[in-house]
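tool_call: predict_structure(chain=1)
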Amino acid sequence: MKKVDLYYDLIDRATMIYYRNLKTDYLDSLLLAAYGVIHEDFDDRLAAEDIKELEEICQQIYSTEFLNEEVRLASQLLIVKAFKHAGYPLDLMTPDAVNYLIAAAVSHRFRHKKIAILDTALGTGNMLQAVCNQMDIDPDLYGIESDWRLVQLARALSNLQGNAIIIYYQDALKDLIEKVDLAIGDLDGYEVGEGLPAGSELYAQGVRYLPYLVIDARLKNLRKKGMFIYLVDNDFFSQPGARLFQEEMRKKATLLGVVTLPKAMFKSGHPGKSIFIGVNEPVKNHQTVIMTINDTDKDTLATAVENITRLVDTF
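tool_result:
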C-alpha cells in the first residue's frame, strides 16, 4: 500500500471511531481524531476497546515514516470526505496542480532563504502547506481565516505535518501586525458589504471587490522586496473599481506577470482563474508578462514551471 493511502486509511479509521460512537459529524470527528494522534490523548467518552484501537492506530502512524507531503496528500482526501459530510463546497480547495505551480515559483525564488509566508485566505491551509513542503528551509507560516471550523481544520492538518502555524481568526481585510516576505491566497471574487474599518483608500472611493481590497491591504504587511502570488478569477480586471485598483497599484507595487490557467482545472461554468504575481514596489519600465497554460498534461505543466520560475527571477 502506498504511504498516502496508508495514512488516509489510518486517520479515517480513527475518525470513524469518533463518528460512530460520539455521533459527531465527519469533520468534527476528523478534528477529534487529529487531536488524539497529535497529543496521544483520546476522548474519555469512548469505550476502553475504542481507545485501545486508537492507541494501536497511533502506534502504527508513529512507527511509520511519513513525509510531510504524503500527509498533506492524504489529508486532501480526508478533507473531501469531511466537506461532503458538512456541506462545504469542494471548490474551497485549490486544485493541486495550481498549488504545485505556486510552490515551484516560491521555492525557486526563495531558495536557501528563511522567509515568512502569509496566506490571506487560508481555508484548510492546503495551499500554504503545499508551498511549505517544497521549501528547503522551513518558513514561518501565518494564515487569515474567518470560518472557525476551517481554522480548526487548518491548524490540525498543519500539526499533523509538523508545520508550525499562527492563524488569525478574523476577516481578511482587518489589520494585521505581521511582516512577511510573501503573501499568497486563492481569492474569492465577490463584493464586500458596507461598514468596513476606515483606512482603505480604495474602499473610501467605493471599491467593493474583495480581491482588489485584499491585495491592496496586504501590501503593507510585506517586507522590503516582498512578493505576492494570488489566484484570481479571469474576469479580475473587468470588475467595478478596476481602474482605481490599477492606479493604486502603480503607486505601490508592480505586477510582474499573469498566468492564465487551463479551464479544465476548474468546475464547469467557472470563468477560470489566473495566477497573479507581483512585488511591493514600483519597477521602472517593467512590462507585465502574460502567459497562458493551455493544457494540464505533464510536459505542458513542466514548461509552465520553467517559465514561471524565470519570471520570478526578474526581480
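agent: Residues 3-22 form the longest helix (20 residues). Proceeding to next step.
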